[in-house]
Design goal:
Shape: flat
Number of helices: 8
Number of domains: 2
Largest sheet: 8 strands, antiparallel
Number of strands: 14
């Protein structure tokens, strides 16, 4: 596969309507918030999970597109399977492993697992470590454009869980956490240098990443998450491997704010987006969505 030759940065805008985009287990699964500003947060882990899930759906069974980070079996078991698949030494354990075997296992993981090739992975645990891979694609936490108002909605359930509860005749109550509406923004980075030196992330992998980002909510529907949509995907393509401008300068080219007269946004049309399309030399702006 042809390795990528350009550095990229990108900006994603997505929104949620009457849903919980990323529950916080430390706060009773309420939507994640910055406690000082009440700005909503969606973690990078949450976003990458949706990308992984989409790739697994569309590339199921295709060599080179397996997903390492998923809840099917223990990671250390997968690392041992890599050693067996490549005929590497299983007698030495942990830190006593032959460095050449660890390198071969790491290279195999990059070739066979899309998420390792893309996001990297810590695979240095267990008896059969496969090393550490620093991924070329990194994504920041998403933050809402405005403070969000998280609500705890009381719901009722007709179907009782036990015979004893049926005898009481009482309606069972539950809770559901939602945000009426919020628009989120996150930024990402793609290093061609790391792709070429470390993982082999290719042009085909890049196109799959864009497709996965655009469709990451389409196969992730649930009552808890409500209506989630990717609204915009802006890509900054550099003409070189190392890049032609600092990332923060490019990110500042995109400004989002509430339209005049809107106090409580309830849909995407309540926001205006201003894009400064005058790019530094060697940088091209691509409006992917």
């Amino acid at each position: 596969m042809e390795p990528i030759k350009n550095r990229y940065e990108f900006v994603m805008l997505f929104d949620v309507e009457n849903g919980n985009p990323n529950g916080d287990p430390d706060a009773g699964n309420m939507p994640r918030l910055d406690p000082e500003t009440s700005v909503g947060i969606v973690t990078d882990v949450c976003i990458k999970r949706k990308i992984r899930n989409f790739v697994e759906i569309v590339k199921e069974g295709e060599p080179g597109y397996n997903i390492l980070i998923k809840a099917d079996k223990a990671l250390n078991t997968k690392f041992t399977e890599i050693y067996k698949e490549n005929g590497l030494d299983l007698t030495l354990k942990g830190k006593n492993k032959n460095p050449d075997d660890v390198k071969k296992a790491r290279e195999y993981a990059c070739r066979n697992y899309y998420d390792v090739r893309t996001f990297g992975a810590v695979m240095s645990t267990g008896d059969d470590p496969c090393g550490i891979v620093r991924g070329p694609v990194q994504i920041n936490f998403a933050k809402s454009i405005d403070p969000v108002f998280a609500q705890e909605i009381t719901i009722t359930r007709q179907a009782k869980t036990t015979e004893e509860r049926i005898k009481t005749g009482e309606t069972e109550m539950g809770k559901k956490n939602i945000i009426p509406y919020a628009l989120y923004r996150t930024e990402g980075y793609i290093s061609a240098m790391l792709a070429n030196k470390s993982t082999g992330f290719s042009e085909d992998d890049l196109e799959l990443l864009w497709t996965a980002i655009i469709n990451m909510f389409e196969h992730d529907r649930s009552a808890a998450r409500g209506k989630m949509c990717l609204r915009k995907l802006y890509i900054f393509k550099h003409s070189s491997v190392l890049g032609n401008a600092p990332a923060h300068i490019l990110f500042d080219k995109i400004k989002i704010k509430k339209k005049e007269g809107v106090s409580s946004p309830r849909n995407f049309a309540d926001y205006s987006i201003r894009v400064d399309d005058v790019m530094p030399e060697g940088v091209t702006l691509i409006n992917k969505l």
